[in-house]
């Protein structure tokens, strides 16, 4: 029996997009940036080194899948990929589509602007665009 559960802060800040082999793929509720979060379903994983070698390889594949979906859907100038976990200890990886004209460019997105939650309509549209890009 797997005792894994999504950290409450991640549950509050994100919306489900897809269920990968290792990770839950979630959309950060911040319309300032197309921003995905991958959360490995591994109990007590805090650091990348808490994953087995096979899980680390699968995580890299899934990061690639999420990155390609952001490229297809949004054609960003750059993709930022990070696993910080300073505030939320559960292992999670950010994959963020960045644009030269975005609110934080060229700096990191953290702390640069107040998160702008998606409207219900925009959320449905954004998730559908990501799911379509994942299928492509």
TrEMBL record:
Domain named HIT is located at 36-105
One Gene Ontology term of the molecular function aspect: catalytic activity
Top-level taxon of origin: Bacteria
Q: Which Pfam families match?
A: HIT
> What is the protein name given in its UniProt record?
HIT domain-containing protein
Source species: Lysobacter silvisoli
Origin organism lineage: Bacteria, Pseudomonadati, Pseudomonadota, Gammaproteobacteria, Lysobacterales
């Amino acid at each position: 029996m797997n005792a894994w559960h999504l950290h409450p802060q991640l549950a509050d800040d994100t919306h489900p997009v897809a269920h990968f082999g290792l990770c839950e793929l979630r959309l950060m509720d911040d319309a300032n940036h197309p921003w995905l979060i991958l959360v490995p379903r591994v109990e007590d994983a805090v650091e990348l080194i808490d994953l087995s070698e096979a899980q680390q390889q699968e995580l890299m594949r899934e990061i690639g899948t999420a990155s390609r979906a952001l490229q297809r859907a949004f054609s960003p100038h750059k993709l930022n990929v990070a696993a910080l976990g300073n505030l939320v200890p559960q292992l999670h990886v950010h994959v963020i589509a960045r644009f030269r004209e975005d609110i934080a460019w060229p700096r990191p997105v953290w702390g640069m602007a107040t998160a702008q939650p998606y409207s219900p309509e925009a959320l449905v549209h954004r998730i559908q665009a990501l799911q379509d890009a994942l299928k492509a």
